Amino acid sequence: MPRAERERQMMEAAVATFGRRGYRAASMDEIAELAGVSKPLVYLYLNSKEDLFTACIRREAAALVEAVRGGITPGEPADQQLWAGLLAFFTHTAECPDGWAVLHSQARTHGEPFAREVEVMREEIVAFVTLLIAEAAREAHSDPTLPEGEVAPLAEALVGAAEALAVWANATPGVSAKDAATTLMNFAWSGLANLMHGKPWAPPK
Question: Which terminal residue of the chain has fewer beta carbons within 10 Å of its beta carbon, N or C?
């Protein structure tokens, strides 16, 4: 078997094991058995357990970012781009629950350097969402100079909501990716649309 294919098998086994068992509980013996290889071969190809977990984080992070970016068609209206990105996000996290568990539940709870690997991915997604919202706001206000910093907090809030909703959707039977994406669009876009058209909510004086 070619090295690349064997590594792919071992990585898939590692993601499944880490996602279901957790980083500390997972063993290299389990990963090797699931991959159908010997434990020494796993160490030979992928070094230590820490290195293997880091490689799993990077692989799943890259796949998630690629899925979100690939789901969006540039040039579409802002709401359609956001909808497509959310649908791609929820579809990917539903189809790859072990990978999502590695990113959201495991990597973040075991400190550095794992948490930082996930934060790099999250920063990329937040920056992407910030750009989408900023483009919509510039169009709504006819102000091409509107800085992205004006909408950056909205992007942070939206990404955080998507992460929490993905966890809930994966744990709730009968909730599809489309259901989750529709819920978040209904929750977020109405407020964003009002804000962009100069109708922000304000607390009582």
Answer: C
Write the pLDDT tens digit of every residue in 81-96: 889 999 999 999 999 9
DSSP labels, the chain: --HHHHHHHHHHHHHHHHHHH-TTT--HHHHHHHHTS-HHHHHHHH-SHHHHHHHHHHHHHHHHHHHHHHT--TTS-HHHHHHHHHHHHHHHHHH-HHHHHIIIIIGGGS-TTHHHHHHHHHHHHHHHHHHHHHHHHHHHHT-TT--GGGTHHHHHHHHHHHHHHHHHHHHSTT--HHHHHHHHHHHHHHHHHHHHTT-------
User: Rounded to an integer, what distance in angstroms lies between the CA atom of residue 103 and that of residue 109?
Assistant: 10
CA distance 87 to 184: 10
- Stated pTM of the model: 0.86
Quick: pLDDT tens for 139-150: 777 777 878 888
- Whether 89 and 188 have beta carbons less than 8 Å apart is answered as no
